[in-house]
Amino acid sequence: MKNDNYVMTSSLEDYLEAVFVLSKEKGSVRLTDIAEYLNVSKPSVNRAIKTLTQDGFLEHITYGDIVITPAGESYAANVLRRHRLIKQFLIDQLG
């Protein structure tokens, strides 16, 4: 990760969260899995994965599995928790 003040876009957070969830469900994650999970194109996933890899959140060898790093797991767990809290708030407030 670049530094403690690093700010990730909401789109990249969604990709990181997807890798986190899929890795917990399936064990291994590939570009196609993420594209299907998020209903986006493979080139979009590829761009996001490259950025997240450069930023230290993922490890990815071309045409291989995508592995989340400890920093990525920590960040993704916080994103997932935040998304679940927002979802529960909306369910409670709006039914």
Task: Give the SSE map.
Elements: H1 10-26, H2 31-38, H3 42-54, E1 58-60, E2 66-68, H4 70-94
Antiparallel strand pairs: 1-2
Characterization of the model:
The chain is mainly alpha-helical. Helix content is 66%, strand content 6%. The protein has four helices and two strands; from the N terminus they run H-H-H-E-E-H. It has a two-stranded antiparallel ribbon. Helix 2 (31-38) packs across helix 3. The protein is globular and about 45 Å long. The mean pLDDT is 90.
Radius of gyration: 14 Å
Uncertain stretches: none
> What is the number of helices?
4
Give the oligomer, counting copies of the same chain as homo and different chains as hetero: single chain
- Average of per-residue pLDDT values: 90
